[in-house]
Specification:
Elements lengths: L2 E6 L14 E2 L2 E2 L2 H10 L2 E7 L3 H9 L19 H16 L5 E6 L7 H10 L5 E7 L8 E3 L5 E3 L16 E11 H6 L10 E5 L11 H13 L5
Parallel strand pairs: 1-4, 1-5, 6-10
Antiparallel strand pairs: 2-3, 5-9, 6-9, 7-8
Helix pairs in contact: 1-4
C-alpha cells in the first residue's frame, strides 16, 4: 500500500488566532504542506486531520482529503502528536480496512516543507523506523548557562567552559517540520512517542523552520516565503 500523509491542523490556535487559514503569500497556511505532500507523489492520500470545517475546506482545495473529523478528545491543548496519530490511523483503518506501511506526519504550520525533504526522509526509512527533520543549534549547547534566582551564572557543563565554540561537537533539535515513520513500529513501540523508535534525521537549515506561535513569527514566515525561490 502506498504511504499515507496526515496533516494536523486544529482550529483552536490561541496565540495566533485562525493561523491555519491565514493567508501566506495568497494561500491559506495549511495549504502549503498539503501542496508539497501532493506534489511529492509519495502518498496514496494526503489526509487533513482537523476539528475545523474552514481548515478542512482550505486543505481539500489544496488537494487533501477529509474523510473524517478529528474527535474533540484529541483536539485540545493537551493532545500530543502521538495521540492524534493513534486516533487518525484508527479512523483510517475503520473506513479502509487497512493501515499503510508508512505514514508522514506534517503540521498545518509546516509551510516550508518541500518535496526534496519528503523524498530524503522516505529514502532514509530503508534503515530507520522514523525520520524527523532537525536543524543545528545556533550556539553550541555545551556552552549553555543557567541563571539562579539570585542572578548567578553557572555553566551546565563546566568541562566545556574553555573550549572554543568551533571545537564543540554539533547538536541538533527537532523542528516539527516532518515525521515519516513505520506505522507497524509506531504501534509496536507503544504509539505514545517516536522516542523508542530507531531514528534518523533530515538536516534542514534554520530558514526552513519557523514555529508560528506569535505575530513576530508570522512576520518572519512572510519574509522567508518572499525570499526563498522554491516557494512560489
Amino acid at each position: 500500500m502506498q504511504d499515507l500523509c496526515i496533516v494536523m491542523a486544529r482550529g483552536g490556535s490561541k496565540r495566533v488566532p485562525r493561523k491555519n487559514v491565514r493567508l501566506l503569500k495568497g494561500y491559506p497556511l495549511v495549504s502549503w504542506p498539503v501542496r508539497a505532500a501532493v506534489a511529492s507523489n509519495l502518498f496514496q492520500e494526503v489526509v487533513i486531520s482537523t476539528d475545523d470545517e474552514e481548515i478542512a475546506q482550505a486543505a481539500v482545495a489544496a488537494g487533501a482529503v477529509y474523510p473524517f473529523r478529528r474527535p474533540d478528545a484529541v483536539s485540545d491543548d493537551h493532545s500530543t502528536t502521538a495521540d492524534v496519530l493513534r486516533v487518525t490511523l484508527a479512523q483510517w483503518k475503520e473506513i479502509t480496512g487497512t493501515l499503510p506501511d508508512f505514514c508522514c506526519c506534517l503540521y498545518g504550520t509546516s509551510a516550508f516543507i518541500t518535496e526534496k525533504y519528503l523524498r530524503e526522509a522516505k529514502a532514509l526509512l530503508s534503515d530507520a523506523e522514523c525520520v524527523m527533520a532537525v536543524t543545528p543549534y545556533e550556539h553550541p549547547i555545551q556552552r549553555a548557562m543557567t541563571v539562579s534566582p539570585q542572578g548567578r551564572l553557572a555553566y551546565l557543563q563546566p568541562e566545556y567552559a574553555k573550549w572554543r565554540t568551533q571545537d564543540c561537537p554539533p547538536a541538533y533539535h527537532d523542528v516539527g517540520l516532518l515525521y515519516y515513520f513505520s506505522v507497524n513500529e509506531f504501534f509496536a513501540s507503544g504509539a505514545e512517542s517516536f522516542l523508542p523508535m530507531q531514528l534518523k534525521a533530515v538536516i534542514v537549515p534554520r530558514t526552513s523552520t519557523v514555529d508560528i506561535d506569535t505575530e513576530e513569527d508570522w512576520v518572519l514566515a512572510e519574509a522567508l516565503a518572499s525570499q526563498l525561490e522554491h516557494l512560489v
